[in-house]
Amino acid sequence: MRYVAPHWEVFVLALGSLVAMSATAPVLVALVQPMLDSVVAEKNLELMQLIVLAVIGLFAVRSVAGHIAAYTTNWVGSKMAMDMRVEMFDKLLMLPARYFSGRPDAAVFAVITSGATRLAEAFMAAVTVLVKDTFTIVGLLGWMFYIDWILALAALSVSAAVWLIMRLTGKRLQGITSEVGQTMDGLSKVLEESAEHYPVVKLYGAEEYEIERLRKQAERIHLAATKRTAVASLGVPLGQISIAVALGVVIYLAAQHSFADKITVGGVASLAAGMVMLIEPIRRIAEMKESLGNWLNAADSVFSLLDRGVERDEGTITVERVYGELKFVHVSCRPEPDTGPDDQSGARDDQDLETSASLRDVTLTIKPGQLVAFVDFSGAESAKSVLINLVPRFHNPTSGEILLDGHDLRSLKLASLRANIALVSAGATEFNDTIAANIAFGAINRATEGSITAAAQAAHASEFIRKLPQGLQTMVGEQEQKLSDDQRLRIAIARALLKDSPILLLDETFDTVDPEAARHVEAAVETVTRGRTTLVFEPRLPTLKRADSIVLLQEGRIIDIGRHRELLARSRPYAKFSQTLLKPEKVVAFNYRKTYREID
What we know:
Elements: H1 8-42, H2 45-94, H3 105-147, H4 149-196, H5 198-203, H6 207-259, H7 265-286, H8 288-306, E1 326-333, H9 353-356, E2 359-366, E3 371-376, H10 382-390, E4 399-404, E5 407-408, H11 414-418, E6 421-425, E7 433-434, H12 435-439, H13 449-458, H14 462-465, E8 475-476, H15 485-499, E9 503-507, H16 515-529, E10 533-537, H17 541-546, E11 549-554, E12 557-562, H18 564-570, H19 572-582, H20 585-589, H21 596-599
Parallel strand pairs: 3-10, 3-11, 6-9, 9-10
Antiparallel strand pairs: 1-2, 1-4, 4-5, 7-8, 11-12
Helix pairs in contact: 1-2, 1-3, 1-7, 2-3, 3-4, 3-7, 3-8, 4-6, 4-7, 6-7, 13-15, 15-16, 18-19
């Protein structure tokens, strides 16, 4: 109801229209009595004209009210879905980074896109049935009790019997449908196993056995489907018989009352019409359980996201522009996946830290403006991903502390900290928007075309942007212009240059076989790293040569620190690693005469 409240005027109009539709049903039934008693029996032409006009007017009211109800309920439902989507997306952006670790994105996106719609539609459908049909039933029963309370009681009891039959039939059908689903799962399992273990089936001559297994599952499906058809078809005659018995009882009692002059012929007809009109709304309310089940399932998926704990900001210090000195003091980290709705961002205990941590007792000082490259010999991206998430506090250390200009990162307000950090990565940096919007991402309302152009030029991106159909206004992304890895990296560098943060996280994970593109990337990287505290992950050889310091990691620990030439001389693993960066396989594959060594 919190999502309905902002649109209460339209919601009230929808409810009023539903009530107006409901009111027409008992009035139409009520008109049957004077039609027979006065118009037919007494040949009252004037009254007949009034009744005809009343019927036309009622149907006109019903049609207009139905249109307004349909429009307003759909409008409110659509608004609810829109508000929920925005709130869910807002919550998604406020969740701890741990929430996204290993989580299937499709499931989350489905909740935001279709979950909100299903919830809103199910809610409005439930409201429509409950309001319209409840008022219809109450109105019809009220009129029937007004005519003859004994006959109305008889009709009501029989209507209850019809409702009970429908409920029992529906419940039985639900159970059989579940059974059909289970047998289908069994059939699929046999098919999957036979296909997966095909060599075993053939070598052990088990073809006949597998065919027999499949036949048994197929027979179970046949029996369950037949049972479902029998129950479904049985519900119709049972309902019809119940209605016939009800009408017979009511007609018999009505005849008795008519003989005793307790009710007129028109009253009997009106009562019978009321009974007939009761059947559909009673049936819809009896079937509400399924709609409510869909509603609750949708609500569970939506509110399980909305009820999650957001990323906690415990910082109290706001800094403007930092100098960029970073100190890692005995930092260990073992990031854990999101655990549930109440999960909060924070430090974890250090149990079994030595065997499971991605970083172990890392102590390191990075001076302002230094370029530090990280090389991990573990063969996994765990240490890299942890380091790249620790500085902006997407993760917190399990133990130890990280200092920025002498401040513990935990003491800084998150917005203040992250305003001083830029990220450059070839992966996941291409948004489905224009090139200009990609460069000015986050500052789209503040950036001018001149500043965007200057950033693109400094990032050596202008040369390929000029060749695009609309230049900076060219749309890129899934359905639009595709960018190569090196082009995406240069766009990301332009974005970082426009932000002009003192700290830069640079991930050079990309492949290029074009020497010209490689030269542009190297020049762009040199531009963006100049004068900034830069942490480079997956560094390329030119970056390693320029680095003020190279940190060698293995199994989450620092095993050596030095400059490129120093490490070449004393570290055999680093020397081997450097040689792999010189290999010209990709160049040879594309018939380039120059090797990477010659390019360097």
